UniProtKB/TrEMBL annotation:
Transmembrane segments: none annotated. Residues 12-136 form the Nicotinate phosphoribosyltransferase N-terminal domain. GO terms for molecular function: nicotinamide phosphoribosyltransferase activity; nicotinate phosphoribosyltransferase activity. This is Nicotinate phosphoribosyltransferase.
Length: 487
């Protein structure tokens, strides 16, 4: 497909309606009006207590490269929907807006802006779809991975999902997100090459089937590799697989690193305990037991409760496809737009569903932590000009149930949205993947355990400042009054 278009680009990786709107803005002369859009999700996925933000590095790359190539423009011309003048305008398009975002690995919550685009209306509009595409998926997988990490504690977890992922990109970027969220390694060799994620692999049933015999297969593998993990469940785990793995390990001795065995079927609690006994009795107490087979955080928790003797967990399908919740549902909404007098006015999207009413105005998210213990007290969404970090005491209240409130003193307020691009120029230095991963780990440490448990976590406070709340109420009232007048 790409071979037909050697100059294929991501400029058309957008919904047609964005380009339709841009043509209107341009013909009506408002394409350069300043707008502010914010990205947020309404519900934390997997009923988790937090999400892990991921995807920024790819968004940065997309924005840096964003331009309409010859074949992009030729294609748009062929559709017959766009004028030559407009296509000429697109030919000269370069992203010139300001992008702010929380950094990758940051712990984030529902209903707070995690990314903001401020600049020409056309620019803000064009990039919506691609940014949502990237952030929705990577944040979802990083969050799922963090859930798995939270139940395995210090055990090793490997990402095995490529074969079940929704196509090439999902495998590659999902693996990266999984690594940020806490996975240790991936089976995907290309992801390892591209991102430097440790690669890890055992062998498949096919090897044993090829030799039609556990012993022959393990021996062949052991004489062609130093590190050996034998897959022992092809025929009979306890009567053939493990005894033959032990036999080969003994025969080869120091010539190999007998790292352990993998089980991929059956009752993994029962089998792993018997396998442990067999390995220990044979003197291989440091050999590890790997397990895989449709695992996720729930099965792993249950296996641990049953005392399963599993040391290394391989997780594929249910991680990479976000099996139990395949969409994060992040949205990208306009919160302010310049009027014909050049004044930035706040805008709102109303809905009969209170949760779907957007919060107008350009905002900053402040993470409020107590000086005493460094733990997060909540997030405080304030209008851009507010300076909560300079306040002595902060009044925090639930934006819907306002009677839930508290006054915080002796706190630190840290702004989460950072400048990534300023007027089209990248100003943010992307950290290394390992730094991002470590950052996620560190950020999770600053969260109280109540928000981190995998079942029924407490709701983390995401509050609006009084000014932000009053502004929202004022705008809702004004719109209602103006509709009433016109009706
Ligand atoms: N002790 C256990 N407690 C809870 N879940 C388990 C336990 N052992 C295995 N599982 C999980 O139960 C599911 C069993 O899947 P399935 O019914 O396909 O059996 P299987 O062992 O894979 O069968 P097969 O031998 O055909 O491969 C998997 O998701 C596996 O992770
Ligand atoms: O179960 P997942 O979490 O998705 O992990 C990946 C799965 O992929 C492999 O099975 P597959 O049947 O594809 O190949 P095999 O022939 O090696 O068993 C592996 O044995 C795992 O079971
Ligand atoms: O290395 C493995 O054991 C592996 C890799 C991919 C999928 N399942 C297992």
């Amino acid at each position: 497909m790409e071979m037909n278009y050697p100059d294929d680009s991501y400029a058309l990786h957008t919904d047609e309606y964005q380009i339709n709107m841009i043509q209107t803005y341009w013909l009506k002369g408002i394409d350069q009006r300043k707008a502010v859009f914010e990205l947020y999700f309404r519900k934390i996925p997997f009923q988790n207590g937090y999400a892990i933000f991921a995807g920024l590095e790819r968004v940065i790359d997309y924005l840096n490269k964003l331009h309409f190539t010859k074949s992009d423009l030729e294609y748009l011309k062929e559709t017959g929907n766009f004028s030559d003048d407009f296509l000429e305008y697109l030919r000269n398009f370069k992203f010139s807006a300001t992008l702010r975002a929380v950094v990758e690995g940051e712990v984030v919550f529902n209903n707070e802006p995690i990314l903001q685009v401020e600049g020409p209306l056309a620019d803000c509009q064009l990039v919506e779809t691609a940014i949502l595409n990237v952030v929705n998926y990577q944040t979802l997988i990083a969050t799922k991975a963090a859930r798995v990490r939270s139940v395995v504690h210090d055990d090793a977890i490997m990402e095995f999902g490529t074969r079940r992922a929704q196509e090439f990109d999902a495998a590659i970027w999902g693996t990266r997100a999984a690594y940020i969220g806490g996975f240790d390694a991936t089976s995907n060799v290309r992801a390892s090459k591209i991102f430097g994620i440790p690669a890890s692999g055992t062998h498949a049933h096919a090897l044993v089937q090829a030799y039609r015999d556990d012993y022959e297969a393990f021996k062949a593998y052991a004489t062609t590799h130093k590190d050996c993990v034998f897959l022992v469940d092809t025929y009979d785990t306890l009567r053939s697989g493990v005894p033959n793995a032990i036999r080969v390990a003994k025969e080869l001795g120091d010539k190999i690193n007998f790292l352990g065995v993998r089980i991929d079927s059956g009752d993994m609690a029962y089998i792993s305990k018997r396998v442990r006994e067999q390995l220990d009795e044979a003197g291989f107490s440091s050999a590890k037991i790997y397990a895989s087979n449709d695992l996720d955080e729930k099965t792993i928790t249950n296996l641990k409760m049953q005392g399963a003797k599993i040391d290394v967990w391989g997780v594929g399908t249910k991680l990479i496809t976000a099996y139990d919740q395949p969409a994060l549902g992040a949205v990208y909404k306009m919160v302010a737009i310049e009027n014909s007098d050049g004044i930035l006015e706040d805008t709102i999207k109303l809905s009969s569903n209170a949760e779907k009413v957007s919060t107008p105005g350009k905002k900053q998210v402040w993470r409020i932590t107590k000086k005493a213990d460094g733990k997060s007290e909540g997030d405080y969404i304030a209008l851009w000009d507010e300076k909560p970090a300079e306040e002595k005491s902060l009044y925090m209240f639930h934006p819907q149930y306002t009677y839930i409130n508290k006054n915080i003193t002796d706190f630190d307020a840290r702004p989460l949205l950072k400048d990534i691009f300023v007027n089209g120029t990248q100003v943010y230095q992307v950290p290394s993947l390992i730094e991002i991963k470590e950052y996620a780990h560190e950020r999770l440490d600053s969260l109280w355990e109540e928000y981190k448990r995998d079942l029924n976590p407490q709701d983390y406070p995401v509050d609006l400042s009084e000014a932000c709340y009053n502004n929202k109420m004022k705008i809702i009232k004004e719109i209602r009054e103006s509709i009433n007048k016109k009706a």
